[in-house]
Write a structure and sequence with these properties.
This protein is α+β, with helices and mostly antiparallel strands. It has 2 domains: about 10-195, Fructose-1,6-Bisphosphatase, subunit A, domain 1 (Fructose-1,6-Bisphosphatase, Chain A, domain 1, 2-Layer Sandwich), CATH 3.30.540.10; about 205-330, D-Maltodextrin-Binding Protein, domain 2 (3-Layer(aba) Sandwich). Helices cover about 30% and strands about 25% of the residues. It has helices at about 10-20, 25-45, 70-80, 145-150, 220-230, 245-255, 280-290, 320-330, and strands spanning about 55-60, 65, 85-90, 100, 110-120, 130-135, 155-165, 170-175, 180-185, 190-195, 205-210, 240, 260, 295, 315-320. An 8-stranded mixed sheet has the order 4-3-5-6-7-8-9-10, sandwiched between helices. The longest helix is centred in the first third of the chain and has 21 residues, at about 25-45. The protein starts with 7 loop residues before the first helix and ends in a 5-residue tail after the last helix. The structure holds 6-O-phosphono-alpha-D-fructofuranose. 6-O-phosphono-alpha-D-fructofuranose binds near residues 249 and 275.
Length: about 325
Amino acid sequence: MSEIGITVTQHLLGQQAEHGGATGAFTRLLNELILSAKIISREVTKAGLVEILGFTGARNVQDEQVRKLDVYAHDIIIRRLCHSGHLCVMASEEDADPIEIPRGFQVGNYVLMFDPLDGSSNIDANVSIGTIFSILRKKSPGVGYQMSDLLQPGFQQVAAGYFLYGSSTMMVYTTGAGVSGFTLDPSVGEFLLSHPNIEIPSRGKIFSANVGYWDYWSQETKNYIDYLRRPDQNKPVYSCRYIGSLVADFHRTLLYGGVFLYPADSKDPKKPHGKLRLLYECSPLAFVCEQAGGAATTGRERIMEIMPQELHQRVPIIIGSPEEVYMAEQFYDGRLS
Ligand code: P6P
């Protein structure tokens, strides 16, 4: 091992070597994403010092105000990944439509779905935010892409993960052979292996949900949260922790155990299935969580088995330690109340 430890590129090359037929395309693709994250991290870190905070005045496909850093992160990823030569199409939270590879650029056999800067409403308060990514293989024949290449269920992912821009910048990812975490060492500009083989505790002591929406929740959700809150000598006393930034709430759940949920609620008729998006938020985090020994469900269906119907589809999510997630399913299917 070198004096600075294992870099993420070395880790990727090691995984590539284990895939006999690997051409290196996937490694080069992920390296472009890693470079994009380093650039985004630099801007996020100094966001309070330069005029890159605030709103652009536009609203995205989610009808959310778009912040300058959102657009910056979105643009950086698109520019760098278009040049990678390994993608046939991309999709971003910030764009209503699929993002085609411009004419003149080499087209490849992978699909990238991403949320460029999730939790950006927290930027002004210096709360941790993140980039979430999901990589799939092109399934349709021929050179161009079909919507079916984008609307694939989570179990078809070849890789998924996130970058967390917090007290340090971290990368956590899986290619289906466990979960590894890397921390950016700004002095050398490298992501170094800091969390090899992450495994989520089978049970935790924290639940994470926006309890402010209690009156908008279904009775099943209320019964489950009541169960977690109820003192019972057969289970730990749970704390409630909610940052309101998905990547930060998920990362804490992954390392400490417990459960994060953003259930369906009735507060916005336009979002009856909750707020979080399937393809570039719930599905990639579900892949990471399952690979770490956890689980991810809508309460009634495994996230990774949902057949997507549209690009920006929203789903309820309950994700985390297996014991808390499987307990939740018993409340949603009526076995417990
Ligand atoms: P609420 C941030 O805007 C985000 O998309 C996720 O990062 C976060 O988990 C969720 O919304 C918070 O939503 O409704 O609790 O403010």
